[in-house]
């Protein structure tokens, strides 16, 4: 498990490249305010949008869920804990006024990035430049 990437996974990097090419600027691995040891994969602080790119195994994707045969009770508990942590993070960020976007690693990066762009543009606060930006 120590070899599993926590950040800069291939789907995450593809989505970030698309967002950057479209002129969107963001922070990477931004700590979740008020929650130690948790971070937002792609954050748009001004628009208060948090994007998480979730791995199918670790976050129990409904389409690709698998159950390891070896040590199955431990894994079931571990994966349930991951899901509970995701829900807690979503609720915490929502209470702080953030919009949370969760993307599965198997999703089409172009569609996922387009969804993020739409949410960011809808949530971006008006600037003092009469909307020119």
UniProtKB/TrEMBL annotation:
Specify the taxonomic lineage: Bacteria, Bacillati, Actinomycetota, Actinomycetes, Micromonosporales
Q: Does the keyword DNA repair apply?
A: yes
InterPro entries named among the record's database cross-references: DNA_mismatch_endonuc_vsr (IPR004603), Restrct_endonuc-II-like (IPR011335)
Report keywords, A-Z: DNA damage, DNA repair, Endonuclease, Hydrolase, Nuclease
The protein's name in its UniProt record: Very short patch repair endonuclease
| Molecular function per GO | endonuclease activity
Segments traversing the membrane: none
Matching CDD domains? Vsr
Similarity comment: Belongs to the Vsr family.
Entries under Pfam families matching the protein: Vsr
